[in-house]
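Work Package 3 (structural annotation) set out to generate three-dimensional models for the target panel prioritized at the project kickoff. During this period the team completed the workflow that converts sequence records into discrete structure tokens, so that structures can be stored uniformly alongside our sequence database. As a representative example, we reproduce one entry of 181 residues exactly as it appears in the project archive.
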Amino acid sequence: KLAREHDKFVITATQMMESMITNPVPTRAEVSDVANAVLDGTDAVMLSAETAAGKFPLETVIEMAKICLAAEGGDYVKLDADFTGKTFTRIDQSIAMGALFTAHHLGAKAIVAMTDSGSTALWMSRHLVHVPIYALTPLMDAERHLKARGIVQTGDIYAITCGEPMGAPGGTNMLKICAVS
């Protein structure tokens, strides 16, 4: 929680899948450790000997990815509680927070951050919200891209953040809510 309050990343790297150095499947305790790290809000999980010297490096990565995806799939949105009474002095953070709140409360299928630097999308990703965030360059047709990948469908709502002028890190100053046509 303290790291999140200060916009710092948390990487959990404590031999999380150590048994997979010699075994093709993780123990229940390892599965639980990885899932709990995700549920606790870690930004990344890291492997070392499991993939560097283990007998099952690919299987280890696949298993860890499955566990992380399953844990991320749970409905654990804490956005409202995390920001009660918090103020933002930067415009880009205020827009990003508005996008997170709006997307969550409207049941949006995605948030699209039109970006050159990626800073707003990165900041949004630091907060627990059950809406996928996509950072796209201004050269892409965001709706067409998301529709083609099956992320959104006709009628789905999504939020777009962007900044004017483009290209300035921290320059996000717009939020637009759209429905897929």
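The two ends are 39 Å apart (CA to CA).
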